């Protein structure tokens, strides 16, 4: 079968064997923001040229309103069965593919994910998962189903403050500063709230307590500290890019949270399982 | 005398009578960011052309490292005496002027202000003051001295998220929506923390619970709510631009905080008093 991870800024294609092992993979920058409406079939044909396996199962923002076609969210709690029932079929020329629905968590305020659900379910384990990133996800899995989750804009807030706020003006490229990062993590637990603590990045800079490179690390520690302090757990699985996972593990350790880093390759395993379920259904 | 409020983006000049009443005022966009190094005397001469009163007392970012000359911070607690002792004299051609020092609040993390100190002390009243803005200030005045204060990046975080984050993408210009604003204020007290609640702006938009104009009001309520919840008081004087003061008053009311709006003209009164102190000192 073919497993596709089609996100906002990248498109990753995997050819899998019958047991779900990756035989071949191709990546490109044709994320959905770089694909014109109506061009999704053409782009996919090009990317998987020469691969004839079926079924094709795709996850990520390709199923959003801005993607190929919208695959409506399934609601929590959501496991493989609920997601398989929500698969959205698309067809073009003589081919077809299935798009994995996103997951919706109702609560005081709704929350949504697209793509993270396959990464988490692919691990095949209950527990609390943290997927750090632009929009970090805190995901609770119980009885092999996503019970509930929350999104934290940690990575995006870091990026916009660094690039567009007064805090970024005194930041300089430089080696990450673990001491300043740890100081930011500690600071995140003190009084005054995040909006106040953010200004401390500037005030400490003005007072000569933080230099240009250290202030970026301090800001990062402050934000990651705020995210993790809201978790209210003692054990977290970390799933994501190794650099980010390392930072989160360091912050969590300072907060007395035990972490376990997982390989971020579980997504294809979940897509493979969905492919097997699809084939079983078609054959029955 | 002449009172000058010289900030980052504007320069306001006031000619005062002996009792501190404003006889004439001039404003321009020659904030310190629009004045080249070395050009401060020329710009001031142009702006106060024809005014010959003395002394000239200036407050605001003109005393920062990027301003005319740095007027080192005086430490809290700081009242008129401490600030008068920290006045920094500058002279050019046959004129001279005094720059009001900023105030420094030491604590776990330092905090700083430049310009707000004269606005607050000019009121001539003890209490807790909130000066909403790009960098809002929460200021405690006791025995006519600034006892301590904290800065909250509320306004700047709102602006950068609106202009540069994914939250801004679905926002539209439109009339402020008081209902959505109130909902944001309430939301700011719920679980998950600010970084999580920010993503709710997007998720509510995706679910059709917020339209483009309402989402900006909701974000504003969320941020102002976070700032005010960290205040931990029941009574606040609001001092600032009328539009912002109105928003803060509405949020405070929802949180059970009593507010009193003050006219934001106290700054010239404080500069006048400093001028009187200067003259008394010179005559003694």
Number of helices of chain A: 10
N→C terminal distance of chain A: 18 Å
Spell the H/E element sequence of chain A.
Answer: EEEHEEHEEEEHEEEHHHHHEHEH
- What's the count of strands of chain A? 14
Average pLDDT, all residues of chain A: 95
Q: Regarding quaternary structure, how should these chains be classified?
A: homodimer
**In percent terms, what proportion of residues of chain A is strand?**
15-25%
Low-confidence stretches of chain A: none
Shape of chain A: elongated
Q: Helix coverage percent of residues of chain A?
A: 25-40%
- Which class do the helix and strand fractions of chain A yield? alpha/beta
> What is the topology, as strand order, of the major beta sheet of chain A?
3-2-1-4-7-6
Largest interface (C-beta under 8 Å): A-B, 43 and 43 residues
Largest sheet data of chain A: 6 strands, mixed
Please tell me how large the radius of gyration of chain A is. Answer: 21 Å
């Amino acid at each position: 079968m073919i497993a596709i991870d089609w996100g906002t800024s990248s498109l990753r294609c995997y050819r899998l064997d019958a047991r779900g092992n990756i035989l071949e993979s191709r990546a490109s920058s044709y994320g959905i923001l770089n694909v014109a409406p109506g061009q999704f079939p053409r782009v996919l044909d090009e990317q998987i040229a020469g691969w004839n396996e079926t079924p094709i199962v795709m996850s990520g923002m390709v199923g959003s309103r801005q993607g190929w076609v919208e695959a409506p969210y399934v609601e929590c709690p959501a496991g493989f069965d609920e997601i398989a029932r929500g698969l959205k079929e698309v067809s073009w020329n003589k081919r077809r593919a299935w798009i994995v629905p996103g997951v919706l968590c109702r609560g005081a305020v709704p929350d949504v994910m697209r793509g993270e659900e396959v990464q988490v379910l692919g691990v095949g384990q209950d527990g609390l998962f943290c997927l750090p990133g632009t929009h970090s996800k805190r995901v609770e899995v119980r009885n092999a189903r996503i019970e509930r989750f929350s999104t934290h804009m940690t990575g995006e807030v870091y990026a916009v403050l660094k690039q567009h706020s007064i805090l970024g003006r005194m930041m300089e490229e430089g080696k990450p500063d673990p001491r300043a990062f740890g100081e930011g993590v500690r600071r995140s637990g003190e009084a005054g709230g995040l909006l106040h603590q953010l200004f401390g990045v500037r005030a400490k800079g003005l007072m000569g307590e933080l230099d240009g490179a250290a202030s970026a690390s301090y800001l990062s520690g402050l934000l990651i500290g705020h995210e993790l302090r809201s978790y209210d757990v003692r054990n977290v699985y970390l799933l994501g890019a190794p650099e980010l996972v390392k930072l989160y593990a360091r912050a969590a350790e300072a907060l007395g949270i035990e972490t376990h880093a997982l390989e971020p390759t579980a997504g294809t395993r979940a897509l493979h399982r969905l492919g097997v379920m699809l084939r079983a259904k078609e054959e029955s």
